[in-house]
């Protein structure tokens, strides 16, 4: 009976995160919730854990991997938390915390994904309390990220998609990156913002099992951690986000928040091979779609999505072309979006890197 009640909680339109217009909820002022303000100092390992007094947050891992044949693979594992009300009720079935997890794997045979939901307070999902002698643990059912200590790394990640079992070891090889200004990431000129940090230096090794077949994978990962109570302005439709591992050792994160009037908000970080990071302001980024394609998005529906892009930076003066490994990397989940592996080329069409792209708000 409790499982049925949980299912109803996830399917009824009350929880805004689980309704059709999640972006509408991100535009809400979030009155009564904790607010994101500049000048706050992020603290670790404390801020690896949950922030239930803020409306929404996520633990977001993407990875670019290869098998022994040199073929490209990709994976995404995300745990979302949303508070349904400002008053905190964290224990039992009356908890105001709702959890959702998405997982996807891009293989040489195509793109596969799953989603799961849980009510907080009953042990089905959550992020463990961080203590000096404890460990980091994020889970929903048997999908689990568990570290060896209070930090998020090194860690083991286990999850499944259909009949595939994924088992990975994650190791950080560099320092965290505080996005925006010391982790305060402004989203519009109207003041909307989030606390946002990344770990773009992750070495990954492991395997995918499907029946008796086991495929060994190795590569690089990118973790995004973000929490907020109002991340979008009223006139913002959605976002286009890129995390890129360049062949020369640099890493680049860029996103564009789309405004109704076309005056989009752009931001990002340029990260050197030594881990030094520099904030990229709006006027330093030139990001434009170059090709729109129609793809199937479930239920006999299609959507037009900008799947090829041109990206340029003013300093350093660099330009790249970005295109998907496969067009069909659509997440046909309760909150639909495109998320998948992209290939990076220079202006002459030579391979320059690999990464991930996310497109939201294209109804």
Provide a compact summary of the structure.
The chain contains 2 helices and 23 strands. With 363 residues, the protein is mostly beta strands.
Task: Give an overview of the whole structure.
The protein has helices spanning 2-11, 22-27, and strands spanning 56-66, 72-83, 97-107, 110-119, 125-127, 137-140, 143-147, 155-161, 164-172, 177-178, 184-186, 193-210, 213-228, 236-246, 251-259, 265-271, 277-280, 285-296, 302-313, 318-324, 330-331, 337-345, 351-359. It has 363 residues and is mostly beta strands. It has a single domain (23-359), classed as Beta Barrel (AttH-like fold). The radius of gyration is 19 Å and the shape is globular. The two termini are 35 Å apart. Residues 1-20 have low confidence and may be disordered.
CATH architecture group name: Beta Barrel
- How many domains? The number is 1
How much beta, percentage-wise?
A: over 45%
**Biggest sheet, open or closed, and with what strands and sense?**
13 strands, antiparallel
The CATH class turns out to be Mainly Beta
Structural class: mainly beta
Radius of gyration: 19 Å
Number of strands: 23
In the CATH scheme, what's the topology name? AttH-like fold
Share of helical residues: under 10%
Inertia-based shape = globular
Number of contiguous helices: 2
User: Could you tell me the mean pLDDT?
Assistant: 90
Along the chain, the helix and strand elements come as: HHEEEEEEEEEEEEEEEEEEEEEEE
Distance between the termini: 35 Å
Report low-confidence residues grouped into runs of 5 or more: 1-20
CATH homologous superfamily?
Answer: AttH-like domain
